[in-house]
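Tip: read the tokens left to right.
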């Protein structure tokens, strides 16, 4: 990693040639240093993974809220008179004449 003053001296003319402000190019250089392990920080791939996980978390929270609204029993705190309902019991209406579970 070059010294800050010499790095900035190199960035200014290059930024003008590629059509961006020096601070933007400096940001890109610093991010490249992080990605290549020359500088501490969150790499581009780690930032993308965090962003994807946060999006998935939001979607799962939204799905949970929808499920809680559709079945109030799902919203009960643990241990509040809940009971286990076997999966076959959900379809008990299909087997009323046969006497119970499939």
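Filled-in amino acids:
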């Amino acid at each position: 990693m070059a010294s800050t003053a010499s790095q900035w001296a190199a960035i200014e003319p290059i930024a003008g040639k590629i059509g961006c402000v020096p601070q933007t190019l400096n940001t890109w250089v610093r991010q490249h240093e992080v990605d290549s392990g020359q500088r501490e920080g969150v790499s581009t791939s780690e930032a993308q993974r965090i962003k994807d996980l946060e999006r998935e978390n939001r979607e799962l929270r939204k799905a949970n809220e929808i499920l809680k609204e559709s079945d109030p029993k799902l919203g009960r705190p643990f241990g509040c008179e809940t009971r286990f309902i076997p999966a076959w019991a959900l379809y008990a209406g299909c087997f009323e004449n046969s006497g119970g579970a499939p």
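The chain has three helices and no strands. Residues 92 and 99 are 9 Å apart (CA to CA).
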